[in-house]
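Field reference: sequence -> structure
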Amino acid sequence: MSLLLTCLSIAGVYAQTKPDWENPEVFAINKENTRATSLPYATEAQALQNEYKTSPYYQSLNGNWQFYWVAKVADVPVNFFEENNYSPITTRSWKKGQQNLIDGKSGWTQMPVPGNWEFNGFGIPMYVNTGFGFPKNPPFINKDDSPTGAYRYQFDIPQSWDGRKVFLHFEGGTNSMYVWINGKKVGYTENAKSPAEFDITPYIRTGKNLLACEVHKFSDGTYLEDQDMWRLGGINRNVYLYSTAPTRILDFFSHADLDAAYKNGLFSMDVKIKNYSNNAAAQTVEVTIFEKAGKKVFAQNKKITVPAGATDSLWFEGVVKTPLQWTAETPDLYNMLITLKDDQNHIIEATSHKIGFRKVEIKDGQVLINGKKVLFKGVNLHEFNTNTGQVVDSAVMLRNIRLFKELNINAVRTSHYPQQPLWYKLCDEYGIYLVDETNLESHGLGYGTDNVSNFPEWQAAHLDRVKRLIERDKNHASVIFWSLGNEASNGKAFFTMYDWAKARDKSRPVQYEQAYQRDRNTDIICHMYPSWESMKRDAVKDLKRPYIMCEYAHAMGNSMGNFQDYWDLMRTSKNMQGGFIWEWYNHGYKTMDEQGREYWAYGGDLRGITS
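Structure field:
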């Protein structure tokens, strides 16, 4: 055999044997496509209320899961996911801020889900601005420092779900993860901040079932998640099951627009129906829109016959006369109900979503909301809680929104990833403009041609991340811009992502900070910390595009200087329309020093890594 053939043969073997978590072309195995956030309900009244716990087709899996932590991925317990491979839980005590290691002899413990390992006694919290916590060498990680958690959790499938499809849904919260049900591998996911959903129907049984997960803190996906924040492990968002009939409302994309005179509402929507059965299904889809007092302002129904095993769509459209218009100051919402009925007019399922009539445009180099120029007084917001890490509940979210309103903050950039679904519902309800950002930053790889955004084998992973952003959040009134990510060069992948986003959603601008040379793949000039002299030069130009700083006036610690100068300039410029302060939180971790005194630590204090 020639040397060339020998090399090719070795390379082929490696390609087949390298782990998924070091293969940039593998980032999703057996995952469902991301869809709009919604849940099936048995009645229209339940759907209009839209409280998950009221649906008979919903089951939360949040709680204490069996847990085994190792410092190296090679030390994960063999076959821990098998049904008969069970170790009794050992009660373990720990103090927050102190490392709690399992050496393989201590047995299993418990871990809250949602929960971060480091805030529950396992591993060391690490705060990094740029870099990965290991030497850069994409797609490889440091296998000698590769914290991994094995999880086991028992759940029941109710008898009433027999014959229905069952889906396992992770709202996000882990860098990469394998999933097993009853000892059988279901799939794999990479992407810490977007949902991962799996069809587990073939793997379950009525009664007791075992869910097992192998959760990695690091993978090749870490190179795309180099955000300036705490790097934490664990499943830190909600996990739940839901079930559907053999036919279901799979997805929907609503457009609550305004006419050219900004007077009447132009409503349209695409509804996708999925038929999992072996027979064609004749059904009716009804779409109804209610104002706050409960009066119908729109109602249409259409029939559809979906072939066996297929997906089909229906299009709805009409005019809503003089609707209340959604803005950050007037966050008026309408309740949109979607009902799927069988050929006997019985409800198969219903779901709902709050929509707001508003128009986002760029005209004459300015962003207009409902025909009016807006000044964006924004902040960057990480998903963070001082006591729980990246586990954020409704109380924390509502406190943030209350403080935003008190401080005249009207906009948030979800730096640098999509946040959990509840945040978007609250921003719709209370009125916050959102720049919704893709979970993508490869800052530590630099901005040149050696950034992975230029490499063919990384293209699909980049595109997947913006798809999962937009498909989940596309129906929210509060989302007014899409962002392709943060500090990740401007390689080929970002032009592909921009083109896909513009084709998928024509109603919103798309921005990307690294297109700062006025490249075509940003609708907004969204500089990061531009110099004062460059701002003065740009302020007097006709830039043809809005100028909205994605980061400025750095506010972590004792800073925020020259703020009045910024705003005097922006208020007198045609194209400048504000910016987003970095950032809302100071990221401290409460721990103790050698003398037992409590203090707020920075991540570098704990691991010797500096920003």
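Note: The chain has a mean pLDDT of 91.
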